[in-house]
Design a protein that fits this description.
By secondary structure, the protein is an alpha/beta fold. The protein has a domain of 209 residues: Rossmann fold (3-Layer(aba) Sandwich), CATH 3.40.50. The protein has ten helices and twelve strands.
């Protein structure tokens, strides 16, 4: 089934080239189907890239999904045009009285700051609180997962000795959990972060369960026992070249970044990266949409 996206969204062209079924809003409105409504709070700097990455994964299910991109009114993007935001994003104040089947909140390049010093901290807390009553299941990615764990469960983030940067092997801590259905015993996920939430802190919280970890990358996936909150520390949504772009960006800034682990063939940045996480990225999003959104959401929100 297709995903329903706003007419004219730049991501459409790339997705069509990849043979992904995208339905424009005009056509979707003519069909008598109960679509799953997913809100995406996109905090990443280059929003068009993240839009494409997420839509690529959300589209890979039998469900028809309608996407609303949400912007925070206290967050001013430096890397995305005002016209793009005006055309394709709705302010949070406009949707806060609506119900959604799912919510995705992305990472953000602010993990060096204490949460309370992030300029949009009060507003993102309002989004978190709103999700408890108005969303069936929420997925928090990277910085958003740390922020939500801090907001809901008072779990602190801790700085790493050096940036965790690369593609790392992971295992299942709870093999029979629905979100991990179809996952291999060992699977790879990209990470790009400077901080972590520690397993020993999460294990003290009886409302949470650790579902996946990595010897090198630490805790990867955590879910609340009611299945309404999924916290993922890595970036399964990343495209093949995203870590390469981050590496080259930091090089151009004179930061002397380390080469991403397990990413370039022969550890040579002149080679095209090998994408070894695509299948598990698709499984993560399709399992979340199926088992934790579609199977749990009411047919009619009240």
């Amino acid at each position: 089934m297709p995903i329903k996206v706003p007419n004219g969204l730049p991501a459409i062209e790339q997705l069509v080239e990849e043979n992904i079924f995208v339905m424009h809003a005009d056509r979707a409105e003519s069909q008598d189907i109960r679509t799953m409504r997913i809100a995406v709070v996109n905090l990443m700097p280059v929003k068009e890239t993240t839009e494409t990455d997420l839509l690529r994964l959300i589209s890979n299910t039998p469900l028809q999904v309608e996407i609303d991109f949400i912007r925070l009114e206290t967050h001013h993007s430096k890397n995305t045009s005002a016209s793009h935001l005006d055309n394709f994003y709705r302010p949070f104040s406009e949707v806060k009285n609506q119900k959604y089947d799912g919510l995705i909140v992305t990472g953000a390049p602010v993990e060096h700051l204490p949460f309370e010093e992030v300029t949009y901290w009060n507003e993102i807390q309002s989004v978190f609180d709103w999700s408890k009553e108005n969303v069936t299941s929420s997925m928090f990615i990277c910085w958003a997962s740390q922020a939500a764990l801090y907001h809901f469960y008072d779990l602190e983030k801790h700085p790493l000795e050096k940036k965790l940067f690369g593609v790392f092997p992971h295992t299942k801590s709870c093999p029979n959990h629905p979100i991990l259905r179809g996952f291999d015993d060992l699977f790879y996920i990209p990470h790009s972060r400077n901080s972590e939430v520690r397993a020993e802190d999460i294990e003290k919280c009886d409302q949470l369960e650790i579902l996946s970890t990595s010897d090198q990358a630490g805790v990867y996936m955590v879910m609340s026992h009611d299945s309404r909150q999924l916290f993922v520390s890595g970036h399964a949504e990343y495209a093949r070249g995203t870590l390469k772009q981050e590496y080259e960006r930091d090089q151009s800034k004179g930061l002397s970044p380390e080469i991403p682990c397990n990413y370039f063939p022969n550890n040579d940045p002149s080679h095209i990266p090998t994408k070894i996480w695509a299948s598990h990225a698709h499984l993560l999003f399709s399992n979340w949409l199926n088992y934790h959104v579609y199977q749990l959401t009411p047919y009619v929100w009240r």
